[in-house]
Design brief:
The complex is a heterodimer of chains A (about 550) and B (about 325). Chain A is α+β, with helices and mostly antiparallel strands and about 550 residues long. Helices cover about 35% and strands about 20% of the residues of chain A. In chain A, the strands form five sheets. In chain A, strands 11, 12, 13, 14, 15, 16 and 17 form a seven-stranded mixed beta sheet that branches. In chain A, strands 1-10-9-8 form a four-stranded mixed beta sheet, covered by helices on one side. The radius of gyration of chain A is 26 Å and the shape is globular. Chain B is flat. The chains are: A alpha+beta (about 550), B mainly alpha (about 325).
């Protein structure tokens, strides 16, 4: 008996001792925080490719590159408006020829100065199809891009974009094939980051240890499936704001649940992707340190307007279907609040979004929907088919939509699973599938235009994501006018008019938009995420 | 015996070639486009997709692709993933974790399982026997991911946050050495451990009733010697078979356990490459697994002869 009591005391004493050491170590790092310092670890998934900005079109690689590079513009964490960063000015009299001037003081981590040439070389590399870079589509608006990407079985005749001209060390001009008033908004994306000369002499080592111009630099090489370590770059211009932390370790996880448990145990200090299983409890556990804000994704139900006009050709039918869907209950019960009802074709985080723009088309009203559906003449065989890809967790909400349509419109609804997303796209492309389908979009750059032209324009039928084959000349001409607008503000108004056309026609019906959730530990402060869901690691500090 | 081993090893060659061809064909004819899979939810840019297909010869006929692959393999080149990493490097990164985890799990399952089984068999119907029976039943009926998540939450999060004790970390941390493997290996081994305990118990109880055991007891041998030398040795044959097959399975990677504890081993690599339809990785990994199975079954067969002198290999 006595023995047992003694052991208990021993355990308690050890626990206290351990806790005490824990306290003393944390107070030590607090001292460092005062002078700017400290080290943290954050969650990451294994990036898909070598870490070259022009070859990265997925979120994990972009997260790391965001710490290692500084772009011409960056996006405000609150409004998502582009702000100048490496650029001193980005101006154009006609939205076609853009003059970009650079600020002084930016150097690459190996000491090379960031010049106009660093940008031009990087963009030429990214636009060249021989390099098969994932970011290639971003250069499509620049004059001469077609010469560098002539397509299969052809060789580019040149390796330089005709539209890029270096004026001097700090100035270059970009000529676009057609005017585009929102061009500046694209430039914060990582495809437009500069590259140092070192990349071109040894791309393989660059992929494992990129040399950027950002607030952090690589500390060693990328340790695949384990971690990527970065440390503060001390020669980063103070005007832009040097990093506060001494170093950051991106720890690589396959599984968000594990990362979340590591965050709860303070083994990592932040994650910008929470598992669904955490959604119920995270608010209570993390309080103010839980961030919940719109993310760029939109989920749609799409219609094969050109293949099956008999069923889905009438806007009234599409509107009736839209009104028969209870968005609120789908986002609450099926997605636990990780998605919210959509009420505009434009995502809420994009400048130009108008709350409730879709009006009654997005309001759940079974009675009106049924009436509209019947007056418009219904669908052939009284049957609606809903296709979805079975590999992406879409079964539940598509089944829910099917049940609601069945109940509210009095139609037969069949659901058709495709094994992969690519399969639906193929079937739609070959016109072998003529039912309605699940579709989604997430932005390439935070501009209202990115929610219109790539999904609903005529050119996007061949070369984009217009799988329904929707064509509306008024929409096309509004887009063209908006592109040619003399100022972004003027353009924005015209894009909103184009949005009104979409709301009238409902080529797809937006069902929900995504919410991003992030959480961070007590150990840090000033944590936030941007429109792409990337962490603002250069502003994060240890909590005092 | 030497000739027997050599014959078995020669037999392995056609098995390997057949296996690679079969798997290569299966992956090739799997529906879905690997280049689209890379792009995820968006349509892959047509030009970029064409360039990737050209670079990795995805447009060639099946047999040409297989020939290119297999000649590469004989020159020691396992090919590249569609994102440009050498497959040999990816396997080389993942395999040590899987081997370590499998070995630790194997030791836990063999030692604890056999010991529990022997104790239960010798105290048939008593408290210890009931305890082993009930606890193993419990382990068998709970799925591994539940055991894994519960232990992770209790030992990794709660123990640290509430008591400041940090013995097991939430996710695998290489710096912790052997300790890092203990919890995942225990979770991984738990199911098999329960089977081994139950198998040992039944098998030993049966041999205890055998004539030769009764003879040994009648001869006046010590109980320890009767059990160890006569009964257990014969009872071990089915257990060795099970353990041998299980070792192969453990080496094949434990997708669920690896995922829970964030161990980037063979299981995760295989699961991910199947999902992305990355043929070169799948074939490389599976070929390695076939090799491992061939070697473990050979070892098991040889062990039989050690346990039972009547079994001879000529």
């Amino acid at each position: 008996m006595r023995g047992a009591t003694q052991t208990k005391w021993l355990v308690a004493a050890t626990a206290i001792a351990l806790a005490a050491t824990a306290c003393s170590t944390s107070s030590k790092s607090d001292d460092k925080a005062a002078s700017g310092g400290g080290s943290i670890a954050v969650q990451l998934g294994e990036p898909q490719h070598g870490l070259v900005p022009q070859n990265t079109a997925e979120s994990e690689g972009a997260e790391v590159l965001n710490a290692l590079f500084a772009g011409l513009v960056e996006y405000d964490n609150k409004t998502n408006e582009p702000k100048l960063r490496v650029a001193e000015s980005i101006e154009s009299p006609d939205s076609k020829v853009w003059t970009i001037k650079l600020k002084d003081g930016y150097t690459f981590h190996n000491g090379e100065k960031v010049t106009a040439q660093s940008f031009v070389d990087a963009w030429n590399w990214g636009a060249n199809q021989d390099n098969a870079a994932e970011g290639l589509p971003f250069f499509a608006k620049i004059d001469g891009s077609a010469d560098l990407a002539p397509g299969k079985d052809k060789k580019p005749a040149t390796d330089k974009l005709k539209g890029l001209q270096v004026v001097d060390d700090k100035t270059f001009t970009v000529t676009l094939t057609n005017p585009f008033s929102q061009f500046k908004t694209m430039l914060g994306y990582n495809a437009f980051y500069p590259l140092p000369k070192a990349f071109f002499s040894d791309p393989k080592s660059f992929e494992e240890a990129p040399i950027g111009n950002g607030p952090f630099q690589m500390d060693g090489k990328w340790e695949h499936n384990k971690q990527i370590k970065v440390k503060r770059f001390d020669n980063f211009p103070a005007a832009d704001g040097k990093a506060k932390l001494q170093s950051v370790t991106f720890r690589i996880y396959d599984n968000l649940d594990t990362a979340y448990n590591d965050l709860r145990a303070d083994n990592i200090q932040a994650t910008d992707k929470l598992p669904i299983s955490a959604m119920g409890t995270v608010k209570g556990e993390f309080g103010d340190r839980y961030i919940y804000k719109p993310e760029s994704g939109v989920g749609y139900i799409g219609f094969p307007i050109s293949t099956n006009p008999a069923a889905y050709g009438k806007p009234e039918i599409r509107k009736a279907i839209s009104m028969a869907i209870d968005r609120e209950s789908i986002t609450k019960t099926i997605f636990s609040g990780t998605r919210v009802p959509a009420d505009d074709f434009i995502n809420p985080l994009i400048p130009g979004y108008r709350k409730g723009a879709m009006g009654d088309a997005a309001k759940y009203d079974p009675a009106k929907a049924k009436q509209l559906f019947d007056t418009a003449g219904g669908v052939p065989n009284n049957t609606i088919e809903l296709g979805y890809n079975a590999d992406g967790g879409h079964k539940e909400w598509i089944e829910a939509v099917a049940n609601q349509l069945k109940k509210n419109l009095g139609v037969e609804v069949t659901t058709k699973p495709f094994e992969k997303f690519g399969k639906i796209l193929d079937a739609l492309g070959d016109k072998q599938y003529s039912g309605a389908f699940r579709m989604a979009w997430s932005m390439d750059y935070p501009s209202i235009e990115n929610y219109e032209r790539p999904i609903f324009s005529k050119v996007a039928i061949e070369n984009g994501s217009n799988y329904g084959g929707y064509v509306n000349e008024q929409f096309e001409s509004l887009l063209d006018q908006a592109d040619q607008a003399k100022s972004p503000e003027e353009g924005l108004k015209l894009y909103q008019q184009a949005d009104d056309v979409l709301i009238q026609d409902l080529p797809y019906i937006p069902v929900y938009t995504y919410m991003s959730s992030a959480a961070y530990s007590k150990k840090i402060k000033n944590f936030d995420t941007d429109a792409q869901g990337r962490m603002n690691l250069d502003e994060v500090e240890l909590a005092g | 015996m030497g000739r027997y081993v050599i014959r078995r090893l020669i037999q392995a060659i056609p098995v390997l070639i057949g296996a690679t061809l079969l798997i290569y064909a299966l992956v090739h004819y799997l529906p879905g486009d690997p280049v689209q899979a890379l792009a995820g939810e968006k349509r892959a840019d047509p030009i970029v997709a064409d360039m990737i297909r050209e670079k990795y010869h995805l447009n060639d006929p099946f047999l040409v692709q297989y020939w290119n692959y297999i000649t590469g393999v004989f020159q020691g080149d396992l090919g590249e993933s569609l994102t440009g990493r050498p497959v040999s490097e990816m396997i080389g990164d993942a395999f040590p974790y899987t081997v370590n985890l499998a070995l630790v799990a194997f030791v836990i399952e063999a030692v604890v399982g056999v010991a529990a089984g022997v104790m239960a068999a010798l105290r048939k119907g008593k408290f210890l026997d009931q305890l082993v029976l009930i606890s193993t039943l419990l382990v068998i009926s709970i799925p591994v991911f539940v055991t894994g998540f519960v232990l992770q939450l209790v030992l990794g999060v709660k123990l640290k946050n509430d008591y400041g004790i940090e013995i097991f970390s939430v996710s695998f941390n290489e710096e912790d050495g052997l300790r890092a493997y203990l919890l995942p290996a225990f979770v991984l081994a738990s199911m098999s451990l329960a089977y081994v305990a139950r198998l040992t118990r039944t098998s030993l109880m049966e041999t205890m009733r055998a004539d030769y055991v009764r003879t040994a007891v009648a001869k006046g041998l010590k109980r320890r010697r009767v059990i160890g030398r006569h009964a257990l040795r014969n009872a071990l044959i089915p257990i060795v078979t099970f353990l041998g097959a299980d070792l192969g399975g453990l080496m094949g990677g434990a997708v669920i356990t690896e995922r829970i504890f964030n161990i980037h081993g063979i299981g995760g690599l295989l699961a991910q490459s199947v999902y992305q339809k990355q043929g070169t990785i799948i074939v490389g990994v599976v070929t390695l697994l076939v090799l491992i199975y061939l070697v473990t079954t050979l070892l098991v067969d040889l062990l039989y002869a050690v346990l039972d002198p009547r079994i001879r290999y000529e």
